[in-house]
Every structure is written in C-alpha cells, then in structure tokens.
Design goal:
By secondary structure, this protein is of the alpha/beta class. The protein has a single domain (20-276), classed as Alpha-Beta Barrel (TIM Barrel), CATH 3.20.20. Helices cover 37% and strands 15% of the residues. The protein is built from nine helices and eleven strands. The chain has helices at 12-17, 43-61, 82-95, 111-121, 145-154, 179-190, 208-217, 234-239, 262-276; strands at residues 23-28, 65-69, 103-106, 125-128, 134-136, 139-141, 161-165, 171-173, 194-197, 223-225, 244-246. The strands form two sheets. It has an eight-stranded parallel sheet with strand order 10-9-7-4-3-2-1-11. It has a three-stranded antiparallel sheet with strand order 6-5-8, with no helix packed on it. Helix 7 (208-217) links the parallel strand 9 (194-197) and strand 10 (223-225). Helix 2 runs parallel beside helix 9, helix 3 (82-95) runs parallel beside helix 4 and helix 6 (179-190) crosses helix 7 (208-217). The N and C termini lie far apart (35 Å).
C-alpha cells in the first residue's frame, strides 16, 4: 500500500483547536536568566507573573490556542543555551494547571530546544525555522530539517506538530527561488504539519498575495498567517489562509513590548467568530 504522507496534516488544526481557521496567540515571556535584559531583581517570579497575566487575558479574550515564546530574549540565538530551555520549561510548568486551550512552544530560534520543551511540558506544537539557509541579522543561518525530524521521533514526540516558518523575520532565503517554489519543495521534502508565512518583523503585516501563492502551491499542508494580523485585516488574511498566529495586535496600544490587553483580544476574536459563521 502506498504511503500517505499527508494523512495527518490535512485536518489536524480542526482536530486540535475544534474550530475552523484557529487563532494561536503568542504568550511572550520576559527576558530569562542568561538573556542580556533579564531582570535580576524581579527574577523568575516576575517572569511567571507577567506570563500568567498575559495567558489569562488571552484565554479570557477567546483565543483558540497559545504558544509560549522567549520573545524578549533579544538578540536571539540559533542554538538555545540550557539555562534558557530550563527557564522556559519552568514557566510553562508553573502555569500548566491554568492553561485551558491547546498550547505550543517557540524557542527562538532553535527547533530542537522547542521540541524538548514541548515534550517535557505537554505542548501540542512548535513553530520554528526548520528548513532553508538564510542571511539574517543573526548571521548566516543554516538548518537541518532531517536532524530535527529524527530528534522528534527519537524523544517520542511524533505527536508534536511542527509549524515551519518559510519566511523568517529579519532574514532572506539565500537561494534565488520564489516563495511558491520554496513552499512546494518544503512540503515534498520535509512534510511540515503547517507552513507559516511572515512579514519582515514581529507585527509587520504579511503580504496577502504571498499567502495566496503559498496556499495555491501546496497540496494539503495548512498555511498560517504568521505576523501582522489586526482587527482591520484579519478577515482578509483568514480568507487566504487556514489560521493565524497573533501577538502584537493583542498588546496594549498594539505595541510589541507591552502586556496583553484583554479588550483588544476580545474585540479581535469577536470579529473572527462572526467571520467563522459565514464559512
């Protein structure tokens, strides 16, 4: 019997989040031990407290899932240090009994660490730069998707879905190929569980035409709008994709560095829920 590589990727979003076109909200962690801007005085208690407040604002506002990320660990590493991995696992562990939606892990920019933390904490998915070679603000950025896939299998995390970001922020794909070609060969060679399409930086609007090109190039792999969604463009972006990862739009005044604003989350999700009724 022929192998069906796509049997588990075509509908896992609906099975995981129980809605069409889910909104996965980012829970950005404050700088962690080892990071240049870690607050030594506030310590890990402050990190957990800030994460708890953001988590509850996101959940109470109605998001479909949450992804924990060391977003404020600037400048990012492409191989995470053990102290950061341990700190992220600690935060999620402290909050686990309060999490009411499916959740994932994003260790910037290290897919192996992301899988390890997800496996240790019960995360359902990761998002990372898993394939490709890039010139980035972080230097020459190489990946090894085969090693990542084998690591997932080796640690018993085959049920942890991998979201491949094929348009990484602050970086450019080194090969001279258009985005549709990259999407198509990534699907064939790597069998991602979803493909994420981003803008230039966190909060930058993703080009809807690029989303459409990627969606049309793929067979069954879900496509997520990865940056820049807001209440004014979310219907257009969801019309071109299978869901979205959102963060900055949920912050106070829509600013990346601010905490989550429950009212902004609810207003956004009310628009999404009304849109789903038309599907």
């Amino acid at each position: 019997m022929a192998l069906d590589f796509y049997s588990d990727t075509s509908n896992w979003l609906k099975e995981t989040f129980n809605v069409d076109k889910p909104i996965i909200a980012m829970c950005h962690l404050q700088p962690l031990p080892g990071d240049p801007y870690f607050d030594e005085e506030g310590g890990m208690d402050k990190v957990v407290d800030c994460a708890r407040k953001d988590l509850h604002a996101l959940q109470d506002g109605g998001v479909d899932g949450v992804m924990f990320s060391n977003e404020f660990a600037l400048p990012y590493l492409t191989k995470m240090e053990p102290i950061t991995l341990a700190a992220m696992a600690f935060v999620v562990g402290q909050l686990r009994s309060e999490i009411t939606v499916p959740y994932g892990i994003n260790c910037l920019w290290d897919p192996i660490a992301s899988l390890d933390v997800a496996k240790a904490t019960g995360g359902k998915f990761i998002r990372e730069i898993i394939s490709g070679v890039y010139a980035a603000d972080f230097g020459l950025w190489n990946t090894d998707p085969g090693a990542t896939a084998r690591h997932r299998h080796r640690i018993g995390a085959d049920d942890v879905k991998m979201l491949y970001n094929i348009v990484p922020e602050a970086a450019k794909y080194l090969a001279d190929r258009d985005i549709a070609q990259i999407a198509k060969t990534t699907e064939f060679n790597c069998r991602p569980d979803a493909i994420c399409v981003s803008g230039l930086t966190a909060g930058s609007e993703t080009d809807t035409q690029v989303l459409t090109q990627v969606k049309n190039a793929l067979k069954k792999t879900p496509v997520l709008c990865n940056t820049g969604c807001n209440k004014d463009n979310i219907i257009r972006q969801l019309s071109a994709s299978d869901g979205a990862v959102c963060a900055t739009t949920f912050k106070v005044d829509g600013k990346f560095e601010n905490p989550v604003d429950y009212n902004r989350v609810k207003e956004f999700m009310d628009i999404v829920k009304d849109f789903r009724k038309t599907l």
